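Take a specimen:
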Amino acid sequence: MGFFDKIKEGLSRTKQNMTNKLNSAIASFTGENEEFFEELEELLIMSDVGAEVSMQAVEELRQEVSRRGLRGGDEVRGALKEILAGKLQGGGRLRLETVPSVILVVGVNGVGKTTTIGKLALELKNQGKKVLLAAGDTFRAAAAEQLGIWAQRSGADFVRHEEGSDPAAVVFDAISAAKARGTDVIIVDTAGRLHNKSNLMNELNKISRVIDRELPDADRETLLVLDATTGQNGLAQAEEFRKSAGLTGIVLTKLDGTAKGGIVFAIAQRLGVPVRYVGVGEQADDLIPFDPEEFAQALLG
């Protein structure tokens, strides 16, 4: 199954929710029809695109309709696709040129962080890279065991300490092992929940300082994993991590389980951080690089 088909299938719930109503609205479109624009704006907001992005997109569409004299539904749909795609940032390939490079993966518990790490490890191994997974979430029971299973599946090296150990110490040992073994990429799992937000962010800062000290010239990506099914609530989490972790990208998981895939637009608008990957299923190859044009095409049909 190709990229477009995976996106299209993964967005089926969002698309059904959005497109049925959009088709109904387009059927009533006769040009300068204010009711259409109001209905469209409401539909986009209901799909979790976000009020600000929805209002901007509809205003731009209104201007395009007037400027280009659009009349048919297909013309309007095509213009809307272009406008929505323009609201998104394409993530591009991860920058992992140094040996080793580091991917720091952050996010609250339950968003699919460990699964995302495993799928990334498989992707990198398939590219011929030597990968090491570091079990930096030492506070959640079974976190290291779950990551270890993914290490076995992907053929990655694995570094862990006992539960409750210092996460920064795990990262230090992982870096030492990576240097000794000629590892291409270290992927670090991190805690998703501690006693309070301050403690969690302090742990992330401590890990970052270890990486800065031990690998000052290494390429580093910091990816925030968000659960698409949480919709707008996920934005509050994203804001906290953006302030403390220096995010370079978003991984949006469980896109196949939500009728509100429009959250991608709200994330891009609010955070100014590109969506790098989207998760559209449970299979190992269901984590796919994000492409704005393909996303808008799959969303609107």
